[in-house]
Amino acid sequence: MAELITLATIKCKQQAVRAVRFNIDGTYCLTCGADKKIKLWNPHRQLLLKTYGGHANEVLDATGSCDSSHIISGSADKSVILWDVTTGQPVRRYRGQASSITCVKFNEESTMAISGSIDNTVAFWDVVSQRQEPVQVLKDAKDTITSIQVTDHEILTCSVDCHARLYDIRIGKMISDYIGEVITYGSMTHDGQCYVLSCSDGTIKLFDKDSGELLNTFKGHESKDYLLENAVNEKDSHIISGSATGEIFYWDLISSSCTQKLVHTKNKPMVSLSHHPTENCLLTACEDEIKLWGVQSVEN
Amino acid sequence: MSECDSDEDNVIRYGTPLDPFEEDELPSKRKYQQPADQYAVDSHGRRRFHGAFTGGFSAGFGNTVGTPEGWTPASFKSSRSEKAQISSQKAEDFMDDEDRSEFGIAPRHMQTQHEFSGQKRKIQQRYHDGPIPGEPVLEQLVKAVHETAAVRMLRAMGWRPGQGAGDRVSRADKVRAKRQHKVYGCYMPQEMRPNQEPASDNDSSDSEFDYETLFAPDDYEPYVLSHKNDKFGLGYSGLSRHSVLGNLMGEYGSDASTSKSHLIMKEKGKKVSIRGQAFGVGAFEADDEDIYATEDMSHYDFTLGGATEDKQKKKVKEKGVNVLEGFVKASKPLPQVPFYPPPALPKDYKPAAAGARRSRFEPTDQPQRDQGLGRHELTADARGALLGETPVPKVTDTNTQTNIPSTEDPIAKLVGRNVNFTSNQEEKSELDFISIKDSEKEITKVFRPFMNNPKKQARYELYLKDRDSYMKEGDGEMDRLSEWERNREIVEFEQAAKLYKPLTGIMSDRFTHASEPDEALNPLCAVAKSSTNYGLATPEQIDAAKRGVYGVMTRRESPWRPESLVCKRFNIPEPGGVRPESKKEDKPKVSYSVFSYLESSVHDRDSFAKEQSKFSGSKSLINTPNTSKEQNKTLNDTENVKRDDNKLENNTTSQINTGFSKRLTVAELFLKESEKDMKNKEQGVEVTETIDKFDKMDLYKSIFLSDSEDEGLPKNEESNDDKDANEFVDVPKNIERNTSPPRGIFANIDFDELNSWKRNVDNKQTNNEKEATSSANVEKNDKEAGAEDKIEIIETYGPKIPDNLMKRLEGESKSSIGGSNLKPVFRSQSERDKEILEGDSSSSADSWVDVKEIKSKKEKKKKSKKHKSKHKKSKHKKKSR
User: Fold this and answer.
1) Which of A140, A169, A213 has the CB atom closest to B570's CB atom?
2) Where are the WD repeats (chain A) (predicted)?
């Protein structure tokens, strides 16, 4: 695997970057700041394109829509805002949840936003219609929802109550897996067959979706009490995670051996990261700084 | 008669006779007027007033400024060549002729011009009472150089200033003339009239003069009438409001010396007149030395005499003694007013402002009021007891190991059995929050809804203790009450019991435990601790997770129904039939009103039961015997089947729980009770009693079930009928049936016929169920699922699922249901505990119902509905035939 180097470093001037997210095709990225603003960047050219202000508290997560025309963001002010990318104005503001929104996702067609909150609920928002109430609220979790992943027919929610729940719309079932540790982040492999769950005990666990069996465990990083995120690279060959030590770990998915260790900022927790959907390119956020990692050839 | 005639002939009449009035007729005061007479007309005979609806006052031609066109606004036009004349507009320009007529708003009539009118208004006008009343001062100052013609003429006539013109008159005549002074209005009282007294004085003095002397007549004195600008009585003038210093002006220009008043005091030749000078100058006080008064020679004496000396002496003396004129100094001084010192304040006196409000947080010595339900007067402890909480143990030193067993005790004591916690450590943490349990006894201690009627309260308590027996037998007290009263009371008790008992259930959704002691400084610590403590994971799961054996052990599947809109947005056909009742049906509607919430919780039985079970799952120590019984069913398939059989044979009370509409009204509860009794009857209780009961039931129904409920009621019955068909084969007669003829949409439906038809079918089905090796429930579900699939497939969108996939999915759903039935719900830990604890308690009918059971029953209900629809179809067929 080609060694990744820092392609760009951007100072976001957002106090702390809570989350960094590539857009659908990986040309742009969003950073959610503790300064209540969302910034849209072109990380490859290190350009700030737009700033979205309107939240009343720290923005904890944001995602762009499939056509990159809208942004959905969740904040500690308990509201979910749908933004218009070009005008920078909030299109809709949903206030249905009782506490901070920790994670927010669009569905595949960006017709529905799904947000998870500290109030233990996952709410479905219809962004197409004018409806202000959640279409559906999932109340199965007994503690904070830490992350949500949405596929074309499934919703994976991870919660502090040590359960990963997979809601399958097609068959109308909720499959909950007890993990035994607080799940700080959950992602899915691109083939949709595995979960990758970051646990608070300093491990990342790879589960088989169908059977719920543990396939692999990845160790070496330090989670402390951070809600570390993880990612799977574009080829599903590696698992990537940040660490409280400021490093970025690459593990081989099969052998679970650490193949690469990048250092963002030493001893500063590297929490949020986002992998490019198609290229070997990674965005990491640490404090006020985001870094774009990649192979030189890709850039050229 | 003839006499009368002759009389009339002889009578001579003058004038026109009055209308002869009938005896019946009451003489009306108002004379009858022709309608034409009732119109006011103007001089031209035109109608002056029109109705308000025809234009109001003088509408029409009459008020159009004299022309048919009416008034036109003036136009202003001005050019260089033709300058516009400045035209002044007058009010008359806008008036009609009528307005200017005698009775118009601006009447015009001929009159002599002012200067020729000969009226002396001009002169009179000169006298005014402004700041300086009388003749205008300026006119007095500025005199005309030449006398006016009138003055010259007067002089020629012999007039002099101060004496009138005319023949000289004698003194007596003069006085007489004065007396005949013309007075308008009423005369002033004799003594009040000015110049009367001095005149007489003069008379007496003048009488010495020659009697024959003639005098010029008095000059004409203009009698100035001043406006009455005060609100005093007529003729009364209060204290002069004019100058305070000097220049004393009485009314009519008379000065102080001449003014007559009742309050004139003469003292030793010196007139003490009472007149207001200023505030603070007493009426009887001597005149102040007016420092502003002009010094006058009259103030001095020019003659030497004793009197003056006396006066001076007196004055000196008076001044020395400091006594007012007319007063005498008292010979002995006034008695001293004794001085009493204020009483000493008591020691415990707390000063407080008289009007100061008492703070409501201030502690009071007064005992608390005892009124109403006593809700607001409860202490925290009482409330806690009410909610069934165990008192919070003192957490002074919970961390020390020695304290742990002691804190354990209260729970164990209260519950009376071992509370299952995962570990000792857990137990300790459990104690940090208040456990909630349900115990009727404690509640009855606190809640006395019938406090004002102790007997009733006693009965209520008895009722709470043992409802069944109470319902059956009653006690001595009850016999005195009439049947109706008794029924009423039972209903009342039931309501009260419902209201006050299940508080824990009602509130369970509202409150949650602080699952851990708040460790704000160490957030992750709390998280780590709580990770096993949600009641979600069974110990086996925890164990499996610890060992890393993920998979079957840690996985749990449960049905979940996505909202149709979610499916739509995800472009996925709705998974139909997996879980028949959607969440919406489960929960009626989220209402945030406390009242509606309370109500719904109380009345909505299965939601309530659900909350109960949910709550019991997490932490509470609810252990009513019934829930565990119901739970058996969910866990054990075979038992389930057995139960079904039991149902068929035995008419157990589980029937009560089936098919009830969600919202249990009082009536339904009552029905339930009656059914319970029916069971008793079968067990050998006297039949007559129950029949009595049902007679009462009818009475009750007739009272409490209004017509509006009739629509719902037959439906309910129908479902009951279905149940009958399902579950009791050989019930002799449906006693709970409403015997009243069907009304409304059910008027034409023959229920008996429907029933008989259904029963056959259902019997067959149940037989099949018996034969089936798998759970009957599951099969039912499957059937239903299939059916619903068929129904709902019409509503799907997106690409159609291939048939084989469909089948697979169905298969999956089947298995999932089976699995879900097999698998315990996430709270199964506690439920199991209960099972172990309860064993095979056989009491059945109670308000605690398991969620699962309800679900299955709902399914049944749906099924029965389906049957119903079938029947209806068949019915229609029959009809068409």
Assistant:
1) A169
2) 10-42, 52-93, 94-135
